[in-house]
Design brief:
D-amino Acid Aminotransferase, Chain A, domain 2, single chain, nine-stranded mixed sheet, binds pyridoxal-5'-phosphate, D-amino Acid Aminotransferase, Chain A, domain 1
Length: 286
């Protein structure tokens, strides 16, 4: 849990940190967010998340609240004040506070909120060694999932469906039965023919920063990649299924809707990618 939060220029104890009831993040989910993983007090994939933040803000015509360097200072200071060695730092930028009206208000300053919390990384490592369960359900989200907005209710419902079925993640699928992504992760398979597959980002999915980092590693490892959507049925017949995100890194799924994937154990490609991704993320964190 975050003990100190940054809200619009002030660091306060978490329980005293508040935003206005007319903040457009609260009223309309009119805001965006980013999550960086933290290793040894340093931020992983710093530039990738910052670039996606700028893209999300730009798509919604929300003013960039401060330079990347200044934001970096706030993120690191929040990490420091919360004494986070390993964990995550969360940033939310909303359009700001204004009397409730659907259209954009004039001359409003964006709200900036930062929290940070510790995570016991060994817990995720243990889950990854045995592999996790996945479930599936239809994707009911809007048409701009490439923007990382705080409007996450369909994702919340999908994650809750996973939890209620004792699973780690819910993979969502479109009207063609093709997997879009996880509720808070990008989805991958090693198909029956041994090809690594993940949906291309021209579709309505988030351009995962971890996904992009993994794609580079895949190339360097010489793994054959087919950036193409796969169906739920293909996933159930796949040799491996795994998901990626800043907070999960690479997490193997060893069952999907109760169907065993491969031999029911994490496969070699997911295991190797987790290892080399973590190695690189730790090394390059700033
Ligand atoms: N897809 C969705 C819907 C997400 O919410 C997230 C992360 O929050 C991801 C994918 C993974 O993105 P990243 O690797 O940038 O954390």
């Amino acid at each position: 849990m975050s003990r100190v939060a940054y809200v619009n220029g002030t660091y306060s104890p978490r329980d005293e940190a508040v935003v206005h009831i007319e903040d457009r993040g609260f009223q309309f989910a009119d805001g965006v967010y980013e999550v960086w993983s933290v290793f040894d007090g340093r931020l992983a994939d710093f530039d990738g998340h910052m670039q996606r933040l700028h893209r999300s803000l730009n798509e919604l015509k929300i003013e960039i609240p401060m330079t990347a360097a200044a934001l970096g200072v706030v993120l690191r200071e929040t990490v420091r004040r919360n004494r986070v060695r390993d964990g995550i730092v969360y940033l939310q930028v909303t359009r700001g506070t204004a009397p409730r009206d659907h259209a954009f208000p004039a001359d409003v300053a964006p709200s900036v909120i930062v929290t940070a919390k510790r995570i016991d990384l060994s817990k995720g490592d243990r889950t990854a060694v045995n592999g996790a369960a996945g479930v599936t359900q239809p994707d009911i989200r809007w048409g701009r999932c490439d923007i990382k907005t705080v409007g996450l209710l369909p994702n919340v419902l999908a994650k809750q469906a996973a939890r209620e079925r004792g699973a780690y993640e819910c993979l969502m699928y479109d009207e063609m039965g093709l997997v879009t992504e996880g509720s808070s992760t990008n989805a991958w398979i090693v198909d029956e023919n041994g090809k690594l597959r993940t949906r291309d980002t021209q579709a309505n999915i988030l351009r995962g920063v971890t996904r992009a980092a993994i794609l580079k590693l895949v190339e360097a490892e010489g793994v054959e990649l087919d950036e193409r959507a796969f169906s739920v049925e293909e996933a159930k017949k796949a040799r491996e299924v795994f998901v990626t995100a800043a907070s999960s890194f690479v997490m193997p799924l060893v069952s999907l809707d109760g169907v065993k994937i491969g031999d029911g154990k994490p496969g070699p490609i997911a295991t190797r990618l987790r290892e080399i991704y973590l190695e690189q993320a730790r090394r390059e964190a700033i």
